[in-house]
Write a structure and sequence with these properties.
This is Carboxynorspermidine decarboxylase. This protein has eleven helices and 16 strands. It is an alpha/beta fold and 375 residues long. It folds into two domains: 128 residues, Lyase, Ornithine Decarboxylase, Chain A, domain 1 (Beta Barrel); 210 residues, Alanine racemase (TIM Barrel). Strands 1, 10, 11, 12, 13, 14, 15 and 16 form an eight-stranded mixed beta sheet that branches. Strands 2-3-4-5-6-7-8-9 form an eight-stranded parallel beta barrel, surrounded by five helices. Helix 3 runs parallel beside helix 4 and helix 6 packs parallel to helix 7.
Length: 375
C-alpha cells in the first residue's frame, strides 16, 4: 500500500534508512575489527532482524525475555546484562546467552560457576563514576546513587577469577568525545586489570549514525583498547541502528481553543511516544515549524485523560482540520518498546516502508491486546 493509505496511528520503519545506518556501523566494524551488537531495549522490531543480522554481530538483552527474542529471532551472538538475575530465570538465560554480564561481585559469586560450566563468557559491569551528561540524571548511570556497576571503592581484584571482560555503559545519545573522556576514567580506575581481560564492552548510548558523530575518534578509542591491552572490543548501540529511520503517522480528530489553538490527535505522547515526556523532547514533525515560524500555531495532544499528554507546540502554513494526517519523525527507537495501553488507547499499527517505496503493515492491534494485559 502507499504511505498515505496506512491506518493511523501507525509506526512506520523505513528499510532503506535502517540499512543506511547499518552500513555506517558495519564500516566501523570493518575498519577496526570491533564487534557491534543491537541493544534490543531501544529497537526490537523482529521484522527487521534478518536485515540487521546481515550487518551486526548479534544482540544484547536486559533480561530473559529480550534474551529469548535475540536468541530466537536473530540467532547470532547473544549478550545479556541485568542489575540482578532471578534464580528462577538464570538457568534459561545461561542456556541461550553467550556473554553473561554481572552487576556486582555478589551476583558474580552466586551464578558465575553455572555460567562457566556452560561454557559462557563471564563479564562484570564497572562504574567509572565519570558523568558526561548535563541535566539528565535519569539517564546517567554514573550519577550519585546509581545502581549500575561496581565502583573502584568496591572493586575486588581477588574475585576476578573466571571473569573474561569488563563492561561499562555511561553514555546517552552522545558523541565520541564523551567516550574518550570515559575511557580516561576507566584506565585511571581499572587500567591495571585490563591486561588480564579478553574483552571490553563499551555499552550503548553512542549516536554513531548521527550526522555530526566523530567516527574517527570512536575508531581511535577502539584501537586504543585493542592495541594497548589486546582486548576484543564490543559496542552495543540501540538508537544508532534505527536513528531517524522511523515515523509515527497520526490523524487530527478535532481542534479546540483554550487560550490557544489545540489539536487532538489519534496518538498519544504518554502511550505511544513516552520519551517525549520522559526525556523530555519535541519530536520532529514534517511540514511544521517552530513556534512563531509559520502563521498557524497549535498545541498537539492525545486522547488520554492525562492533562500533560502533550506532544508539543508546532506552527503550520495552513489551519489544521479534522482528518489531516501528520507525520512525526525519529519514531522507531524507544517507541514500540515502551508504549502502553493506558486509558485503553489502541496500540499503533506497525508497518515497513520497503526500499521501493511501498508500505506493508506487519502488525495491527485491537481490543484483545489491551484486555490480555489485565486480569
Amino acid at each position: 500500500m502507499k504511505f498515505e493509505e496506512l491506518p493511523t496511528p501507525c509506526y512506520v520503519v523505513d528499510e532503506a534508512l535502517v540499512e543506511k545506518n547499518l552500513n555506517i556501523l558495519k564500516g566501523v566494524m570493518d575498519r577496526t575489527g570491533c564487534k557491534i551488537v543491537l541493544a534490543q531495549k531501544a529497537f526490537s522490531m523482529t521484522t527487521m532482524y534478518p536485515l540487521i543480522a546481515e550487518y551486526l554481530t548479534g544482540t544484547t538483552a536486559s533480561g530473559l525475555f529480550e534474551a529469548r527474542l535475540g536468541y530466537e529471532e536473530m540467532g547470532k551472538e547473544n549478550h545479556v546484562f541485568s542489575p540482578a538475575y532471578r534464580e528462577d530465570e538464570i538457568d534459561e538465560i545461561i542456556s541461550i546467552c553467550d556473554h553473561i554480564i554481572f552487576n556486582s561481585f555478589s551476583q558474580l559469586e552466586k551464578f558465575k560457576q553455572k555460567a562457566l560450566d556452560a561454557g559462557r563468557s563471564v563479564g562484570l559491569r564497572i562504574n567509572p563514576e565519570c558523568s558526561t551528561q548535563v541535566g539528565h540524571d535519569i539517564y546517567d548511570p554514573c550519577t550519585t546513587g546509581s545502581r549500575f556497576g561496581v565502583t573502584k571503592e568496591h572493586f575486588r581484584p581477588d574475585r576476578l577469577d573466571g571473569v573474561d571482560g569488563l563492561h561499562f555503559h555511561t553514555l546517552c545519545q552522545q558523541n565520541s568525545d564523551d567516550l574518550e573522556t570515559t575511557l580516561n576514567a576507566i584506565e585511571e580506575k581499572f587500567g591495571e586489570w585490563l591486561p588480564q581481560m579478553k574483552w571490553i564492552n563499551f555499552g550503548g548510548g553512542h549516536h554513531i549514525t548521527r550526522e555530526d558523530y566523530d567516527l574517527s575518534k570512536l575508531e581511535a578509542c577502539i584501537k586504543r583498547m585493542q592495541d594497548k591491552y589486546g582486548l576484543e572490543v564490543y559496542l552495543e548501540p540501540g538508537e544508532a541502528v534505527a536513528l531517524d529511520a522511523g515515523y509515527l503517522v497520526t490523524t487530527v480528530l478535532d481542534t479546540i481553543e483554550n487560550g490557544m489553538e489545540i489539536a487532538i490527535l489519534d496518538t498519544s505522547a504518554s502511550c505511544h511516544m513516552p520519551d517525549v515526556l520522559e526525556m523530555p523532547y519535541r519530536p520532529p514533525l514534517f511540514g511544521s515549524g517552530e513556534v512563531g515560524e509559520k502563521p498557524f500555531m497549535y498545541r498537539l495532544g492525545g486522547q488520554t485523560c492525562l492533562t500533560g499528554d502533550v506532544i508539543g507546540d508546532y506552527s503550520f502554513d495552513q489551519p489544521l482540520k479534522s482528518g489531516d494526517r501528520l507525520v512525526f519523525g525519529d519514531m522507531a527507537i524507544y517507541s514500540m518498546v515502551k508504549n502502553t495501553t493506558f486509558n485503553g488507547m489502541p496500540l499503533p499499527a506497525i508497518a515497513v516502508k520497503k526500499t521501493d517505496g511501498d508500505c506493508q503493515v506487519v502488525r495491527q492491534f485491537g481490543y484483545q491486546d489491551f484486555k490480555v494485559r489485565l486480569a
